[in-house]
Specification:
This protein is an alpha+beta fold. The chain has eight helices and 15 strands.
């Protein structure tokens, strides 16, 4: 590649990166460019730096310097987690640790065999399930809530059940409270541990950024703008809900946010991300098919007092386009119970 071409490419990428850093999470229209696979924020500038060095000369070295600077500036957008490769050894899980899974079910076996779906859920053998998309998709931007509670009770007789807003929480632990949240796509359930301590679980589903219609239609961009506003409102509500929670909490679900999307900054403020415990340099959770594993949209966070012992993504075996998040967590300390929690009557 001629040095001039390498320099031109480096300038174009640098301009894109500057716009991304300035506009990402601040202007609704940048939701679309931020959907690119996050590893590109490392792969593209690294390639440009290498090509600049190979081209040589002052022009080539300028291109290499721009590539290196872009690599340093954009690396945090990539979702690459070097700490996961040399994670510290964790202590064995205590006997009272809770095994929890969080999973976007892709509209609750709407297009898969229900028997296979329920068999898979049972095989996960979790103490607590946080399940999203307890609904069926109309494929026109709307969805329909469903009622599969009788089958749930038959499949999980040892679990208590809480459902709301297209979300399901199943728990072997007694459900103490189902707490009202400002976030309209979140289900908070407070669980009673055997020693009477409380673990609050936030089952989260943030709205997706766009509707799959032609980008040549004005409706496409109206939807992006509206959904950006909806997402902001959800994140603000969730932040207020977590701040109001005075017990150790676990926040998990489908955030429809990759590390390259500005809303990842909002996620980071909610709690501690357990991702380095996966042991994967680039953890992904969406489109688990080979060749499509480019995005992490599902997150799991904890607040002080909740300690994660293990965390991994599990293959959904074709039942969903999201991987299963599996975690083992226990409580180390407690905090005073919140005084301002608003309660919903639990269904269990």
């Amino acid at each position: 590649m001629p040095a001039q071409v390498a320099l031109c490419a480096a300038l174009v990428w640098s301009a894109f990166l500057v716009a991304h850093l300035l506009l990402n999470g601040r202007w609704w229209g940048w939701l679309l460019p931020s959907l690119i696979p996050p590893p590109l924020f490392v792969a593209v500038p690294a390639l440009l730096a290498l090509l600049g060095l190979l081209a040589g000369g002052r022009t080539g070295l300028t291109a290499a310097a721009l590539g290196a600077a872009a690599l340093a500036a954009g690396a945090r957008q990539s979702g690459i987690t070097p700490k996961a490769l040399h994670r510290g050894r964790t202590a064995a899980s205590p006997a009272d640790a809770v095994r929890l899974v969080s999973w976007n079910t892709q509209h609750w076996c709407q297009n898969t065999d229900p028997d296979r779906f329920y068999t898979f859920l049972r095989e996960l053998d979790a103490d607590v399930y946080l399940l999203q998309e307890y609904s069926h998709d109309h494929f026109d931007g709307t969805y329909e809530l469903i009622d599969d509670e009788s089958r749930l009770r038959a499949a999980f007789p040892e679990h208590q059940i809480a459902t709301a807003r297209g979300l399901v929480t199943l728990s072997r632990l007694p459900i103490g409270d189902v707490v009202e949240t400002a976030a309209r796509r979140t289900l908070r359930v407070d669980l009673q541990l055997p020693d009477r301590r409380v673990l609050s679980t936030f089952n989260v589903h943030i709205p997706v950024q766009l509707r799959l219609i032609s980008p040549l239609r004005a409706e496409f961009y109206r939807q992006v703008r509206q959904r950006a506003a909806d997402r902001k409102k959800e994140y603000e509500g969730l932040a207020a809900d977590v701040a109001d929670c005075r017990t150790p909490a676990l926040i998990a679900g489908d955030f429809n946010t990759s590390p390259a999307i500005g809303d990842a900054r909002r996620i980071a403020r909610l709690g501690k991300d357990a991702v380095r415990l996966t042991g994967r340099l680039y953890p992904t959770s969406w489109q688990p098919r080979p060749g499509m594993r480019w995005w992490r949209l599902d997150w799991l966070l904890t607040t002080p007092g909740a300690h994660v012992h293990s965390y991994r993504f599990r293959d959904p075996h074709g039942l969903s386009d999201h991987s299963v998040q599996e975690v083992t967590v226990s409580l180390r300390t407690t905090r005073p119970a919140g005084r301002h929690a608003r309660h919903l009557p639990p269904r269990h």
